[in-house]
Amino acid sequence: DEVEIDVVSRGKSGILGLGSEPARVRVIRLESPPDLVTVSSEVIGTIVSKLGVSAVVNLKQAHREDLGGPVFEIEGDDSGLLIGRRGETLRALEFLVKFIVGRKLESRAMLMIDVEGYQERRYQSVSNLAQQVAQRVVSSSRPINLEPMPPNERRIVHLALADHPD
């Protein structure tokens, strides 16, 4: 799978070893296609270093089932700068990385970037909020509007309430 073999000449066995000729083959090493984790890690590292942020990028999970891709964790002294107001900078960073990686791999890139556990904490609080509001709606029989949310957080609300009986 890693090489391409081309037989240039089959060679000759000769008679009792006399007049023999060795076979000649050409072996070409095939380039392995870049994978999502490697390319994503390089892109995130490059962007973080160009921003001048003192942080380290780690692969937290190689494949997250509900996401369909890897999860990267950024940690460091300046990593809070990457979160921004209500996670806006982090969402923009994730969008930019997905766009660049998608262009490099020529396919849609599914991945998640988390900074110091912010995304996980935010998703947990949105999920808890959804459960609490659902209970209030059930008890009062009146609709309750939630604040506007970005698509990834609305998805968390839908996932949190997908199995809710009411």
Question: How would you briefly describe this protein structure?
Answer:
The protein has helices at 36-50, 88-105, 118-140, 151-161; strands at 3-9, 24-29, 56-64, 69-75, 112-115.
* Strand line-up in the sheet with most strands: 3-4-5
Average pLDDT for all residues: 87
Uncertain runs: none
- Main beta sheet strand tally, sense and closure: 3 strands, mixed
Radius of gyration: 26 Å
Query: What is the β-strand count?
Result: 5
SS summary, helix count:
4
* Helical residue percent band: 40-55%
**Termini separation:** 53 Å
Shape: elongated
Order of helices and strands: EEHEEHEHH
SS-based structural class?
alpha+beta
- DSSP strand (E) fraction? 15-25%
Task: Give your account of this protein's structure.
It is a single chain. 40% of the residues lie in helices and 20% in strands. The chain has helices at residues 36-50, 88-105, 118-140, 151-161; strands at 3-9, 24-29, 56-64, 69-75, 112-115. Helix 2 (88-105) links the parallel strand 4 (69-75) and strand 5 (112-115). The mean pLDDT is 87.
Descriptive labels:
alpha+beta; 5 strands; 40% helix; 166 residues; two-stranded antiparallel ribbon
Task: Describe the SSE topology.
Blueprint: E1 3-9, E2 24-29, H1 36-50, E3 56-64, E4 69-75, H2 88-105, E5 112-115, H3 118-140, H4 151-161
Parallel strand pairs: 4-5
Antiparallel strand pairs: 1-2, 3-4
Helix pairs in contact: 1-2, 3-4
